[in-house]
Specification:
Elements lengths: L4 H20 L2 H22 L5 H15 L14 H5 L11 H11 L3 H11 L5 H8 L3 H28 L1
Helix pairs in contact: 1-2, 1-3, 2-3, 5-8, 6-7, 6-8, 7-8
GO molecular function: DNA binding; sigma factor activity
Family: Belongs to the sigma-70 factor family. ECF subfamily.
GO biological process, one term: DNA-templated transcription initiation
Length: 168
């Protein structure tokens, strides 16, 4: 059953924002990414809603937007202030409650974009290696390599982040 774009945003904006925040490690950048994706999705919604999995398509748009975010010039078009908050009111960030999770996010923020995306897709979005490869546009072996290298970097960096935090 086709849904209106407004209903899709109402039902999925929070999940898209959480996913984009996990990718970008910055809630403000995440809002920009989701805003940009939703603006493009709104223009193409009649075609998107006809797809077998419109939610997966929009999710992929968020991933692609994150991967290309720094390569593009700053956008001049934006939604009026407070539009996303009206659809999905701000909610407390639960990651600050758990120090270990915060350290992991700090470590993830230091990873290269593709490694970061692969780690988030695998352990946050619970995707298979085949799904990760499809979303990143690479082979399964490359997706596994991104995850392996990202995890190795996290194992090296998290103890250093813990020591730095304790020194404060």
């Amino acid at each position: 059953m086709p849904t209106s774009f407004e209903q899709y945003v109402h039902d999925n904006a929070r999940d898209l924002l959480r996913y984009a925040t996990a990718l970008s490690c910055d809630p403000h950048t995440a809002q920009d990414i989701v805003q940009s994706v939703l603006m493009r999705a709104a223009q193409r919604w009649p075609g998107i809603e006809q797809l077998a999995a419109p939610g997966a398509y929009v999710h992929r748009m968020v991933t692609n937007e994150f991967l290309s975010w720094r390569r593009r010039a700053v956008r001049t078009v934006s939604l009026p202030h407070g539009v996303l908050e009206a659809v999905t009111p701000p909610y407390p960030d639960e990651t600050d409650v758990v120090d270990q999770r915060q350290l992991v996010f700090q470590g993830i923020a230091l990873l290269p974009r593709k490694q970061r995306a692969a780690i988030v897709l695998r352990y946050y979005a619970n995707r298979t290696f085949a799904e990760i490869a499809g979303e990143l546009g690479c082979s399964e072996a490359t997706a596994r390599s991104h995850i392996s290298r990202g995890l190795a970097a996290l194992r090296d960096r998290i103890p250093a982040l813990e020591r730095a935090k304790e020194a404060l």
